[in-house]
Amino acid sequence: MKIYPIKSFFNFYRKAHTIYNVQSSFLYSLILNVLDEQKEYYVFSHLEFARKKLLKNETELNVNDLGAGSHVLTSSKRRVCDIAATSLSSENTCRILFQLVEFFKPKQILELGTSLGISSMYLAAPSKKIQVTTIEGDKEIAEIAKNIHKEFHFDSIKVNNGSFKEMLPKILNDLKTIDFVFIDGHHDESTLEYFKLILSHSHDNTIIVLDDIYWSETMTKVWQTIIDHPRVSLALDIYKIGIIFLNKDLSKQHFRYIPFKFKPWKIGLFG
Question: In the chain, where does DSSP find H-type helix?
Fold first, then answer.
């Protein structure tokens, strides 16, 4: 069991606010319509069915981790079901990604860390006009993701296989500009490099979401460096993920919030 995430959670909880502490109308609307939104979309059950299929898939892969890897799985030989159980973004996190996209309506989305492809589908699900470009380091995992995307008819997702360092500059040059980014791969100092590179292809309304900001002490320091960046206005910390806004019209603020549906035992905090 990793001690740091547990210690950091209690520190986060001590400093976090509720909706009653919110003064910004933008932030209030974001919390009400995204973080605490309880609406059930049909696609949620559809995509969770895809997750269940992966959880039953006992195919063994020979995994070559290019990112942070797993706190739980250490062997290069891994079954798809074990990867699905330990490495996929949780249903709650995926719903928040979906609702962020549904609310802000980005068209060009970039994901760093495809894994088995569930979060990619949640990002693409709000509209057929959305183009999701995602990068996965491991070839065999990328193939599983491509297959699940094809099976569930998500033709607007393009999976790229390769390291972030190699693929990201090429993809950013091809895309020119991006509206929404989900970073869920390297949880170390390299995240800061990718963030700075992404900034050069971002606009004022680009939203950047970082997963596992309390993965390690190093990752939390990276998160702190990012929120101190002069281009960052609002930084929203909900413990499992951090959400960055670049809009110059927003006041500089770092706001820790506990979503209404927040359940620490469902986000891998104690495992």
Answer: 3-15, 25-30, 42-55, 80-87, 91-104, 118-124, 139-151, 164-175, 190-199, 217-227
Six token digits for residue 249: 């019209």
- Packing angle between helix 217-227 and helix 190-199, nearest 10 degrees? 20
Most distant CA pair in the chain, distance: 51
Whether the CB-CB separation of 206 and 180 falls below 8 Å is answered with yes
- DSSP run (H or E) holding 268: none
pLDDT (tens digit per residue) in 165-215: 999 999 999 998 999 999 997 788 999 999 999 999 999 999 999 999 999
Q: How far is it, in rounded angstroms, from Cα 46 to Cα 241? A: 24
Which pLDDT score is estimated for 204? 96
pLDDT tens across 114-136, in order?
999 999 999 999 999 999 999 99
pTM over 0.70: yes
Residue 228, SS3?
coil
Q: Which amino acid is at 201?
A: H
Rounded-to-integer distance, Cα 162 and Cα 129, Å: 26
Model pLDDT, residue 75 = 63
pLDDT surpassing 80 at residue 104: yes
What is the Cα–Cα distance from 222 to 142, expressed in whole angstroms?
Answer: 27
Instruction: Tell me the C-alpha distance between 63 and 74, whole Å.
Output: 10
Task: Supply the pLDDT for residue 268.
Answer: 46
Residue 230 CB coordination number (10 Å): 6
Tell me what percent of the residues of the chain surpass a pLDDT of 90: 74
Are 145 and 114 in contact by the 8 Å Cβ rule? The answer is yes
